[in-house]
Amino acid sequence: MAPVQAQALPTNPDSGIVPEKVRDGIDLQINGEHYRHTGDPQMPLLWYLRDVLRLTGTKYGGEHGDNGADLVLLDGKAVSAIAQPLARLAGAQVVTVEGLAGNDGTLHPVQQAFIDEDAIGCGYCTPGWLIAAVELLRRKPHPGDDDIDRLPNLCRCGCQTRVRRAIKRVAAGKAGKA
Amino acid sequence: MSNDLVTPDDSCGNSIRLSRRRFLQVMAGTAGALVVGIRMADAADAPLPPALLGDNFHDLGAYVRINAEGNVLIGARDPDTGTGVATALPRIIADELDADWTRVSVVPLGLGVTSNNGQPRWTYGRQIGGIGGSIPAAWNDLRQVGAVARWLLLQAAARRLGVPGDQLRCDAGMVIARDGRRFTYGELAADASKIALPTSVPPLKKPADYHLIGKPVGDIDARSIVTGLTRYATDEHYADALVAVLVHCPWADGTLAHIDSTATLAVKGVVKVVQLKPEPGQAWGNTVIAPAVAVLAEDTWSALQGRQKLKLEWKPGASGSESSYALEQQASALLAGKTDPTTRVRNDGDVDAAGKKAARRLDATYFQPWLAHATAEPMNCLVRLDKDHASLVVPTQAPQKAWAVVQRLTGLTPAQIDIKVPRIGGGYGRRLDHDYVAEAVMLAQAVDKPVRLLWTREQDLGHDYYRSGSVHQLSVTIDRKRQLLGWKQRTASASALAHRNVPDNRLWTSELQADQLPAALVPNYRSDWYALDSATPRGPARGMPHLSNAFAVESFIDEIAHSMKEDPLVTHLRVLGDPREVPLSSGGTMDTGRLANVLKLVADRIDWKNWLRTVNGLGIACWHVEGAYVAHAIEVAMQGEKLIIQRVVCAVDVGRVINPLGLEGQLAGATLDALSTALNLAITFKDGQIQQHGYKDYPLASMAQLPNAVEVIIVPDDDRPPAGASFLAMPTAAPALANAVFRASAVRVRRLPLMKELLRML
C-alpha cells in the first residue's frame, strides 16, 4: 500500500485559523491503531515503538534481534522489530505484545496459558516468546515438539520447558482451564 | 504516571493519599526485636494498579497498606530478577496478616534509606536479590511485619466491639468475634493505622494455620508481564532525558588515544559526546568498567547512529597481552609444579600418609571456561540529578551498593537519593556491580540533564565482570574396602574478589568451599587454591563457587565408581555414609541423610536400577548448598554426533517451602541455565580482547538442545526453616550430564563447554 499523500486542507477564510498542513509520513497500523511516522524513515520499528509511542512491551534483545525479545507480528509474521526500518512498513499491520489481548482485557489464549503454566522467568523475553508462540499456533494449531523446537527465542532464566507446556495447553484447548 | 520527583517528606500523619506514594516505615530487626521507627519517607514510585489509584490507604507498618474497600498493598523488599521473591516475600507477610490473597497487590519498595547523622540507615534492613538469601532472611523478619499489621487490626476491632483482642480471630481479610460479629480489614484500616505499634512482636501464627505459605501460586506480575505492561528499568523514561549509548575501550585498563566525533555530532538528534574514565583506586564494580565514549542524543536511534560514526583509537594497557589460553597454561603449570598454594583452604588428617596405605589411586583434571552473565535485559540506568536530589531507576540486585556509588559521585545526603528498583530482566550476579550506575551519574553530571543509559548486547557480553575459568586437579586414594582414604583438590583460578578491597587471605572464598563434598566425609582431605593474576574484570556469578567445583567433584566420584567397576549410586552413598549431621567449618552442619535422600529420589524416578541395561546413558550427581540439598539424574541419547537430553530429574530438600510453584520454576529454570552453560558457553580472550560479541558466538542453548521437561521433586520438610534456592539447581546439572554422556558415548568430558569437547573426542 502506498503512503497516504499529503493533501491541501480546506480552510475557513472567516476564522483566520489555518490548520497545520498534514505532514508527509509513513502510515502504519499498530495494534489496530493508525499512526503516521514523520521522522527518519530508517528508524527501526523497535525504537519507534519504544521511544516514540512508548509501547515498551517489545524489548531490546540485541542489534540483530538476538534473543527474540523484540519479536512483533508484522502482517501476521513474527519478525524482529529492530530489523524493520519504518520505510519498509508503509501500510503494514503490526501487532505487539500489548495488542494480543482483546480491548476488553480478555487475554489471548497464549497469554492465559503462560499464566496457567507460570511460564515466566524474569519476564523480559516473555513478550517475544508470546509473539513467536502466537504465530506458531496460527500456522499450526497442533504443533509437535519439533515445531516448538524451532522457536528462535533464547532465555537464560530457563522458561523453555514451561513455555513448551503452555503452547501444548493452548493446542489442547485448555488455556484458562484447570 | 508522572515521573516527577516525589515531593520531600512533610510528615503528614498516618493516613495518607496513595498518590503521594509514601510508606510508614517500621524496621523489623532480624533477631526478633522490633525496631520501630515511625517516619514518613519516599518509597516506591512503581506502577500501581489503576483501580487503586487515588483511593485512601492506611499504613499498617512499613510494608502494609489497606484501604476502606479492603484492598491490601504489600511492599516487596528484595529486587526480583525472575527468582519469584516479589511473590514469595509478600506471601509471607500476607499469611501472617491473614489477608485474602485475591485482594493483595504487590509494590516493589525500592531502596529504603534515611539519614542517621549523615550515615545511611536502611529502612527495610537487608535488601539484596538473587543470591539465595531473600527467603531465609524474610522468614526471620517479614513474618513479624505481617503479625504487627494483624495485631493492629485486631486492636481496632477490639476497641470497636469492647472485647479483649484475644477473643477475636482473623480470617481471609476479616476480624471475627465469638458471637459472629465481623469487620472487614477495610472497615478497620483507618482506626488500626492510628493505634501505636506494639513494643514487642505479637505471637506468630502456628504453622498449621498457614493458608498461603506452602500453597502454590503463580508469579504476582504474570498478568502485567504477558500483556507487556510491566516496566523494567529500561522502559522507564523522563521526557527531558537524553539517551546515552557507549563505546567501551576493548581493554579495561586501556586508554583513548584519539577521538574524532565530528560526524557523530552532525547526526540529527545527537546532543553531546562525553568521555568517561574509571576513577583511579576504585574497586571493580564501583566505577566505570573501562574507559568509554558516550553519545548522548534525544532518542535511541539517533544515539546509535551517532555511535556508529565515532572514529576512535584505543591503546591497550597491561591486559593487552592477556589471553584465556595462556592463563589456563599458567594454571596447569602451577598445579604441575611444587610451589606452595596461595591458600590452604582445608587440611584434615594427613593426606600424604594416607596415600601410602592405599590400594588404589586415581587422578583427574577438570577445566572450566570463563563465563559471562548474559542477562536478557542489558545494563541500563535512568538518572535525574537536581541540586539537592537524585532520582534513579536502577536494575540492581543490591540497591544499597548502588546507593553508595551515587552518594560518592554526588555527595548528596542519604535521604536525598531515591533509588527505585522495578522488576529486573535477569541478574545472575552481574547486577551486584554498579559500573553502569556510575556511568549514568557521571553522564548526567556532564550534560546537566537526566540521562537514560542503554548498553547494547555486544557491549554487555564484551564488557562484563566475568567468571574466571579454572583448573581443578583431583586425586583420591582408596582402600581395599573401597573406602575413600584421602582426597586432594588443587584449584587454580583468578579470584572474583580481586580488585575489590578483599584481603588476600580471603580471595579463595569465591573459588572454593571449605565444606564442599566430600570434605568432612573423608578422613584425610586437603584443598589448596592457587591464584592466577589477571587484569580481565571479574565479579560475582551465579552459583559461584559451587558450579565449577561440583562439576569437578561429582564427575570425579563417577570416575572413581567406574574405576572400581561399581554402580556410581553405590559409590556415592558409601561416600555419604550413614545418615548423620556432619559439622562444617562454616559452623553449620551437613545432613548426609537428607543429601542421600534427594540422590535416591532422582535415581528412583529415572529408573536407575537399570543403569547398565539402557542403551541411553544415565548420570547422577548431588551437592549441598548452605543447608539445602540437591540432586540431578539425567538420561541422554547419542544419535551420531547429536546429543539428545531425554530426561532430567531434579530433587531438592530446602526445608519449608513458601511457594512450591515458584520453587519448581526456579529449579527447572536453574537446571536449564546450567545445562545451557555446560553444553555451549565459554568466553575467550586474546590480546586482552573478548572474542564473543553476541548470542551467535555465546550461544545460550536453543529450545531444541534443551530437554522437553524438567521433573522436579520437592522433599516435604516443614520442620526446618526455608533455605535459599536461587541457584540451588545449578551445580549438579553439568556433572549429571557429563556422567550420562560418558555412559552413552564412553567419552569422559573433563572440559567444558561439553559439546565442543565431546565433538573433539568422538
UniProtKB/TrEMBL annotation, chain A:
Which controlled-vocabulary keywords does the entry list? 2Fe-2S, Iron, Iron-sulfur, Metal-binding
* One Pfam entry name: Fer2_2
Where's the [2Fe-2S]-binding domain?
Answer: 96-168
Q: Which GO terms describe its molecular function?
A: 2 iron, 2 sulfur cluster binding; metal ion binding; oxidoreductase activity
Q: Which InterPro entries has this protein been placed in?
A: 2Fe-2S-bd, 2Fe-2S-bd_dom_sf, 2Fe-2S_ferredoxin-like_sf, Beta-grasp_dom_sf, Diverse_Oxidoreductases
Q: Which domain of life is it from?
A: Bacteria
Q: What is this protein called?
A: (2Fe-2S)-binding protein
Which organism is this entry from? Rhodanobacter glycinis
